[in-house]
């Protein structure tokens, strides 16, 4: 592979105008396609096959008037102090608001608070329910604004009106704050390279890669229903790996220039050596992200595939467009006059650190492991859930509506459960409905059960159950399970069947499905990547060590996420506006993304150690020399990733905030504690045992030459003849 990449690098360097033109055409074509053919992104989080989704499908078929699956909004109306919503002025204000809500675009039904008797005991608060004939992601910003504007007259009359529900939630967007990470990355690149030209190239190629990937995603949204977080995850991952992959190849290119090679040869060798590592590092990320498709959760699969494609684009750009741009830049990438004679090798900070770790490997190992264990402790109390109005920003109308409703009606009013009663097989449908309502009313944590709504054919009814506890509480989860348990007894007695749906029940089902999928997914990606790392390092111990180190990084990251986003530590410093249960999708998403990124550093750092070992260096010197060559670039790459991810902590979406923090912290721990501390300590401790591989396995594993060792030997043995042969083969 290294030989093929060497040829590709030289070909791209030589045909740089053509390569640049092709990528420009691709970028423009996808951009135009995204502008003209893109569709609306979805906020929905559903999983086919769950009971809540089956109940929605049943209602869609038999009770379309119920608008199952459509967007909903809860409208909380609070009278001024000293007045009520039931006096003449209050009643008029509520009726005016209900009339305005009915005229809002795409609204199907508005439930009048007086007809539904949703008036608080003190008569000061009324609760109206708005149902849309469209799903939440189908609502435009204008539709949402029209809903909010309907309260203008009522507010002018002195009433407080706040809105909750998924109809109010807009599609999360990236803003200027996320660009801060890119700015910090630029500073790191300038410090690393000491050259504006060299620093600008990774940024340029990363932005082109992200633009290409994002264009493809938005183009696909015109034909597929994509989750609104899909492009944001792709942007986040694409920027980080795009900059890092270019950084590794540009660093190697500068190294080759300083050895006195001409620019075309330097580009070829950089692509053949560092490019090989980029390919395998990219493959680990792609495997981890694409693996999200096999766990049966569509929206996570979409996010994983989109991010994986963006990573693949970043790899291809690093292997083709980057050498072409190096062709335009030439020796200016070096940032100084190229010296043909090598300077004496100086002791670097990386080498000093590696020797320190080797001398004190046991204390360093124990301190690092103990520190990770302490940080991981909060993960033992992790609670999972999906966002609701309680976790919205404190100043948002959703959070205010949640607080008023909780104070006036109880927390359960913010998470009503919809119970579908299928009486098609019942001989006495009315009696079956009565028994269903009575059985549910007897269950613990039930505040109220509304009278049933029956479809036109009379074989399907809908009950609304108000829990006493909030939508994210364990009591509500237990109530959903208890109602579902009642279905068997009801069917035996009356022939009727129960099913629970609604946003709260759907969130519970999704969270359970995600939790169940986490361990199988972890086993899948770890297994596949373990095999890949065995191919790269031709060792059983190194991949095992890399995997164990990754698990430690994940545990520590989970602990930090719980401490910040669940317990509320450092929220003011980080700009986190609300706390609550950890997003259910975060652990499995973090496992996939962080594993791929962690293996990047493993590949780039340890391949050089293996190269020194293969060349006959003693284990200690092989570790130190490999660390000296790789440490500076890995540190720069980690700082860039941390900067890019940390920029997303300032986003408005709680999910994007938590993903940005988790990835930034995870990379911090994995790069500086695991790869830069534990790896040299363990490699020093194991010595030659680190490279142990059974002979039978050595015979069957293909030699992929990720370090480009064979290529380098081949070129150095007879540079003139062999280079002409290789270049000729690429023409």
TrEMBL record:
Its main location: membrane. SUPFAM superfamilies: Multidrug efflux transporter AcrB transmembrane domain (SSF82866). The chain crosses the membrane at residues 179-199, 206-226, 232-253, 274-299, 305-334, 362-381, 518-537, 549-570, 582-601, 633-656, 662-686. This is Membrane transport protein. It is found in: Cell membrane. It is a multi-pass membrane protein. The keyword Membrane applies.
């Amino acid at each position: 592979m290294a030989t093929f990449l060497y040829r590709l690098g030289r070909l791209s360097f030589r045909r740089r105008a053509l390569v640049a033109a092709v990528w420009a055409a691709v970028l423009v074509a996808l951009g135009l396609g995204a502008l003209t053919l893109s569709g609306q992104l979805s906020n929905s989080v559903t999983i086919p096959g769950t009971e809540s989704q089956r109940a929605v499908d049943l209602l869609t078929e038999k009770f379309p008037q119920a608008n199952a699956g459509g967007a909903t909004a809860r409208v909380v109306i609070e009278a001024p102090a000293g007045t009520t919503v039931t006096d003449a002025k209050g009643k008029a204000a509520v009726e005016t608001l209900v009339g305005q809500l009915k005229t809002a675009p795409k609204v199907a039904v508005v439930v009048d608070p007086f007809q539904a008797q949703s008036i608080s005991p003190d008569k000061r608060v009324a609760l109206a329910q708005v149902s849309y004939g469209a799903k939440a992601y189908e609502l435009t910003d204008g539709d949402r604004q029209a809903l909010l504007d309907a309260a203008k007259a009522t507010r002018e009359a002195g009433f407080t009106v706040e809105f909750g529900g998924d109809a109010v939630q807009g599609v999360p967007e990236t803003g200027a704050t996320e660009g801060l990470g890119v700015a910090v990355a630029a500073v790191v690149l300038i410090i690393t390279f000491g050259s504006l030209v060299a620093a600008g190239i990774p940024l340029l190629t990363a932005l082109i890669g992200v633009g290409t990937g994002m264009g493809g995603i938005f183009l696909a949204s015109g034909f597929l229903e994509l989750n609104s977080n899909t492009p944001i995850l792709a942007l986040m991952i694409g920027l980080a790996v795009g900059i890092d992959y270019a950084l590794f190849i540009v660093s190697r290119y500068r190294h080759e220039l300083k050895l006195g090679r001409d620019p075309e040869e330097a580009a070829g060798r950089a692509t053949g050596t560092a490019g090989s590592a980029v390919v395998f590092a990219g493959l680990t990320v792609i495997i981890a992200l694409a693996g999200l498709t096999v766990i049966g959760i569509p929206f996570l699969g979409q996010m994983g595939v989109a991010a994986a494609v963006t990573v693949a684009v970043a790899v291809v750009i690093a292997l083709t467009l980057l050498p072409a741009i190096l062709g335009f830049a030439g020796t200016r990438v070096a940032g100084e006059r190229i010296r043909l004679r090598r300077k004496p090798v100086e002791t670097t900070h990386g080498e000093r650190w590696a020797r320190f770790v080797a001398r004190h490997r046991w204390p360093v190992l124990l301190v690092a492991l103990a520190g990770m264990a302490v940080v991981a402790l909060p993960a033992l109390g992790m609670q999972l859930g999906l966002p609701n109005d309680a976790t919205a920003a404190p100043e948002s109308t959703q959070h205010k509506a949640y607080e008023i409703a909780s104070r006036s009606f109880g927390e359960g009013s913010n998470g009503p459960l919809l119970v579908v009663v299928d009486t098609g097989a019942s001989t006495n449908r009315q009696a079956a409905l009565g028994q269903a309502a009575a059985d549910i009313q007897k269950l613990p944590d039930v505040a109220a059960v509304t009278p049933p709504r029956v479809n036109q054919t009379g074989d399907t009814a809908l009950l609304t159950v108000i829990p006493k506890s909030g939508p994210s509480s364990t009591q509500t989860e237990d109530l959903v399970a208890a109602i579902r348990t009642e279905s068997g007894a009801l069917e035996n007695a009356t022939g009727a069947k129960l099913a629970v749906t609604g946003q709260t029940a759907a969130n519970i089902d999704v969270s359970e499905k995600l939790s169940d999928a986490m361990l199988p997914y972890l086993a899948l990606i770890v297994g596949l990547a373990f095999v890949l790392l065995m191919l790269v390092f031709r060792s059983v111990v190194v991949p095992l060590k890399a995997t164990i180190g990754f698990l430690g990084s994940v545990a520590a990251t989970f602990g930090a996420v719980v401490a910040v986003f669940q317990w509320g530590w450092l929220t003011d410093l980080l700009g986190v506006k609300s706390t609550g249960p950890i997003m259910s999708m975060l652990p499995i998403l973090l496992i996939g993304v962080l594993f791929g990124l962690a293996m990047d550093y493993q590949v780039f750092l340890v391949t050089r150690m293996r190269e020194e070992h293969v060349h006959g260096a003693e284990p200690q010197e092989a570790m130190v020399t490999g660390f000296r060559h790789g440490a500076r670039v890995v540190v720069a790459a980690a700082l860039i990733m941390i900067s890019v991810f940390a920029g997303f902590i300032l986003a408005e979406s709680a999910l994007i905030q938590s993903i940005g923090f988790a990835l930034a912290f995870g990379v911090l721990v994995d790069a500086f504690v695991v790869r830069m501390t534990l790896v040299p300590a363990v490699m020093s401790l194991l010595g030659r045992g680190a490279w142990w591989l059974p002979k039978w396995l050595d015979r069957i594993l293909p030699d992929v030459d990720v370090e480009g060792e064979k290529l380098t030997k081949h070129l150095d043995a007879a540079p003139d003849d062999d280079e002409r042969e290789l270049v000729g083969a690429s023409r």
